[in-house]
Specification:
By secondary structure, the protein is α+β, with helices and mostly antiparallel strands. 34% of the residues lie in helices and 19% in strands.
């Protein structure tokens, strides 16, 4: 979720970010998660954003994808 309407300047070069969002999330709409991914990427981060067919809660898919992503770092 985008935490600020006007985020502070940041240098995120060399930082890797994984965003897993739920396509049926009633709290954080998909466009908001996409906006966060774009904001982080524009600050220099390497962003992987995946939308899963789930809601707001943590799913087993989230855990599996995060585990693989962390292992690849």
């Amino acid at each position: 979720m985008v935490p600020f309407s006007e985020p502070p300047e940041a240098d995120l070069r060399g930082k890797a970010v994984l965003i897993l969002s739920g396509g049926a999330d009633p709290i954080v709409p998909g466009h908001n998660a996409g906006q966060l991914a774009a904001m982080l990427a524009s600050a220099g981060a390497t962003v992987e954003h995946r939308t899963l067919p789930v809601g707001h809660g943590l799913s087993q898919s989230d855990v599996t994808i995060a585990k693989r992503w962390l292992a690849s770092r």
